[in-house]
Write a structure and sequence with these properties.
It comes from Brachybacterium saurashtrense. With about 500 residues, this protein is α/β, with parallel strands linked by helices. The protein has 21 helices and 20 strands. The longest helix is centred in the first third of the chain and has 23 residues.
């Protein structure tokens, strides 16, 4: 035995070298089999490239971040919810669309229902709010009218000077006996540590039940969950009668980050206030998220109730999406609408990193004569995404897409799309691969020309605060920046 040990010591460097190369080759071979399984070719190639160049680094990263699937216990909950939603959907007919809407809008309604099991509802009212502080004040005012329940869900939620009145309104109603339930994303909230802790203390002090969504607790749900699977929705529902949803988080417009304050950054948002039957559908979506985090199944009769206000004229449909769904619901809807457009597409997205199918849909629309406008920010708050989206500008401009850069120091964080004069999609979903694959999102499809008038006013205000990007200007940007953009585009494919 001593002779064998001595031999190992004498040849240790050689043995370690052989072991290193054996592991290196084994990881490469395993990656060739495992990585391409049920994955987009672009994503598979990006992962394989990372693993082939640095196997001992790339493969562990793939195990950590390579799967967008929820862990087993969460998948089981999702299956329960999906089954209940489809049973409910079978007994609820869609509302009738106006006679003047194009035939393709009905097919979009059927697609949404097949994907998310939410019906099209009629007789809704909807108003837009683009003022950051004004929307928080309006939500707080609505909360103070609550008599029965207040349901709150935000990706980022914290207690600071901007949100003090809203949180105070929640506390007031809870003290008055109203049932208040609050959800906030674990990573989104905890990344603003001081505001997050202050919020939790305030909610606890008033007996408000609250939970972090998608908590980062490895293996607790029966399997490892990659940490960047997030709940990105933003909703407030009061008594099942008033609903708010859109792009805005419940935090100050500079997100309480010293770097943002130094740069003078602040966020521009678009929120929609809803009344009518659609509010119950929004409340039902909240109830599914509440079930995931609390294991409490809220009684349907307390969540879905006949609306006392059916004086509105808008047809609305909730479109949920996220890693719990088999299909990429938001991507499927966007692409269907882009290919259906005959006159005009206006897309607003702070993070625009499309997959191949969406890029093809937009370019095809522009080349067949559809007027396509894309609103993005002149500056970015996320280095990788900002530079990745810039890599798409050349091909879009060459195809005839008009790109508007919202002027610094504001980050245009709104997320909405209008098609012709027929339909609007507004909500929390960006047009990037993360929103399609990794984040739970909530979108709202609104049909009809009346609501489009309000949307055109918002688009006009954005256009007035933006400058148009010209192709010749873009071609003259420094080669180093071009290289950074293209490198970030490659990295963004690793999902």
């Amino acid at each position: 035995m001593s002779d064998l040990w001595q031999w190992v010591l004498d040849h240790g460097v050689l043995l370690l070298t052989y072991a290193f190369w054996a592991v290196d080759i084994l990881l490469r071979l395993i990656a060739l089999v495992v990585v391409p399984r049920n994955r987009r070719p672009g994503s598979a190639i990006a992962w394989l490239l990372a693993i082939m160049v640095f196997p001992l680094v790339g493969f562990p990263l793939y195990l950590l971040l390579g799967k967008s699937q929820l862990p087993r216990r969460r998948r089981e909950k999702q299956q329960v919810v999906n089954r209940l939603m489809r049973v409910r959907s079978q007994s609820i007919p869609d509302s009738d669309l106006d006679e003047d809407v194009p035939s393709w809008l009905q097919s979009a309604v059927r697609l949404n229902r097949q994907l998310g099991a939410f019906p099209l509802t009629g007789n809704n009212s909807a108003d837009l709010e683009i003022g950051y502080e004004a929307s928080i004040a309006a939500m707080a005012a609505d909360v103070r009218t609550a008599q029965h329940t207040v349901h709150v869900l935000f990706y980022i939620m914290g207690l600071d000077e901007a949100t003090e009145d809203f949180v105070a309104a929640l506390a007031e109603r809870a003290d008055a006996g109203v049932t208040v339930r609050v959800l906030y994303d674990h990573w989104g909230g905890a990344s603003h540590r001081a505001q997050y802790r202050a919020l939790r203390r305030r909610l606890d002090a008033h007996g408000i039940e609250h939970y972090p969504m998608m908590p980062i607790r490895p293996f607790r749900d029966g399997a490892f969950q990659r940490p960047d699977l997030r709940n990105h929705r933003k909703m407030v529902i009061v008594d099942g009668e008033i609903g708010w949803m859109g792009s805005q988080n419940m935090i100050a417009s500079h997100y309480d980050k010293p770097a943002n304050i130094r740069r003078g950054l602040h966020w521009q948002e678009t929120m929609v206030r809803l009344r009518g039957p659609i509010v119950s559908e929004l409340n039902l979506l909240f109830a599914t998220d509440w079930f995931y985090e609390s294991a409490q199944m809220l009684p349907q009769e307390t969540v879905v109730r006949p609306s006392p206000d059916t004086s509105g004229s808008y047809e609305c449909q909730v479109v949920p999406s996220g890693p719990g769904f088999v299909a990429e619901n938001n991507l499927a809807l966007f692409n269907q609408l882009f290919y259906s457009a005959t006159r005009r597409i206006v897309a607003v997205s702070p993070y625009f990193v499309p997959d191949e199918s969406m890029l093809a849909a937009l370019i095809t629309a522009a080349r067949r004569g559809v007027e396509v406008e894309l609103f993005v920010s002149e500056i970015g708050d996320q280095f990788l995404v900002f530079h990745a989206q810039r890599s798409y500008y050349s091909v879009l401009l060459e195809a005839g897409v008009t790109i508007w850069l919202y002027r610094a120091p504001t980050i245009l964080h709104a997320k909405h799309v209008t098609i012709d004069d027929s339909v609007t999609v507004i909500g929390s979903s960006n047009m990037d691969i993360r929103s399609f694959l990794l984040q739970m999102e909530c979108s709202l499809m609104v049909g009809g020309t009346d609501f489009m008038v309000k949307m055109r006013e918002v688009e006009a205000s954005y256009r007035a605060s933006s400058r148009r990007l010209e192709l010749e200007e873009w071609k003259r940007r420094p080669r180093l920046k071009q290289a950074v953009d293209n490198l970030c585009r490659l990295a963004s494919a690793v999902v």
